[in-house]
Backbone:
DNA sequence: ATTGTGGCCTGCCCGC
DNA sequence: TGCGGGCAGGCCACAA
């Protein structure tokens, strides 16, 4: 499912539309338009606007224009398709099909230049409709981005919290971008029990967490997805720890299915 | 404010 | 072969 890494790949794909002008906004699904706007309002606000940048904060993709900012969320099964090329071919838990009925939102761009070549499109194909688009989303409702999280920022995010460590890592208001799979991988590598109170970590443990968090994000971005971690293959009921062979623990923490190793995650 | 819970959405997979 | 139930989790509303 799209976590910060997938959305970063989406952002890179979206950079291809920087400089293009919106000719038509296709928003067939009112449910998919968030923030109290209607599809008609979205169309009016964006038609004729030129895209000036593609940014990302956590799992939120932001298209800057010479008009309003457009925010795109992908939920669990949303894929970004630019000029009919999917930015990621395979999504964990998502279908590999690109059914036209699942196109929930699209920008069609105006043709450029005298060659009259097609202006191209940017669209979200989302079977589950858990994503959405929003005009001028509140970016500051999100914490600092996980991919560039400093140690000081991690410190602030964890300090004085009684919530389970994993729940805090996944809390987008405190750290933006970590989802369930990345959370499990990071804590498994850092050797930290996801159920421990976030504020209970020693300075040494917080350092270790920060180091592993950075490494996991960098490595898995290179590998190409949140589902390509070393723990992933064992995230099932009979799974064993790839490091020491112990039977993995399967629990619900912070409302999410959580796998951890009772032998080395302390 | 913090923390936890339930519901939303729907394709897919398993067991019968 | 078809059917029903459970599962996946990002996000939001709501409760205490």
Residues:
């Amino acid at each position: 499912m799209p976590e910060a890494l997938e959305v970063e790949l989406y952002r890179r794909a979206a950079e291809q539309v920087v400089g293009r002008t919106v000719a038509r906004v296709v928003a067939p699904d009112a449910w998919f338009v968030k923030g109290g706007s209607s599809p008609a309002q979205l169309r009016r606000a964006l038609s004729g606007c030129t895209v000036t940048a593609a940014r990302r904060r956590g799992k939120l993709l932001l298209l800057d224009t010479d008009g309003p900012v457009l925010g795109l969320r992908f939920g669990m099964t949303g894929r970004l398709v630019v000029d009919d090329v999917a930015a990621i071919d395979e999504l964990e838990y998502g279908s590999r099909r690109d059914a036209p009925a699942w196109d929930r939102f699209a920008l069609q761009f105006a043709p450029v230049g005298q060659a009259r070549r097609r202006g191209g499109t940017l669209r979200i194909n989302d079977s589950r409709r858990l994503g959405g688009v929003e005009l001028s989303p509140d970016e500051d409702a999100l914490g600092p981005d996980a991919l560039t999280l400093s140690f000081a920022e991690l410190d602030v995010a964890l300090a004085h919290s009684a919530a389970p460590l994993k729940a805090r890592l996944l809390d987008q208001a405190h750290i933006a971008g970590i989802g369930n799979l990345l959370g499990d991988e990071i804590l498994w590598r850092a050797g930290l029990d996801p159920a421990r109170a976030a504020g209970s970590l020693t300075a040494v443990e917080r350092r270790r967490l920060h180091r592993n968090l950075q490494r996991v994000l960098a490595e898995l971005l290179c590998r190409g997805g949140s589902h390509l971690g070393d723990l992933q293959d064992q995230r099932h009921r009979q799974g064993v720890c790839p490091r020491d062979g112990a039977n993995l623990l399967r629990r619900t923490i912070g409302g999410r299915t959580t796998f951890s190793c009772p032998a080395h995650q302390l």
In short: The helical segments of chain A are 4-14, 39-46, 151-158, 165-170, 180-190, 203-223. The first strand of chain A starts at residue 22 and ends at 26.
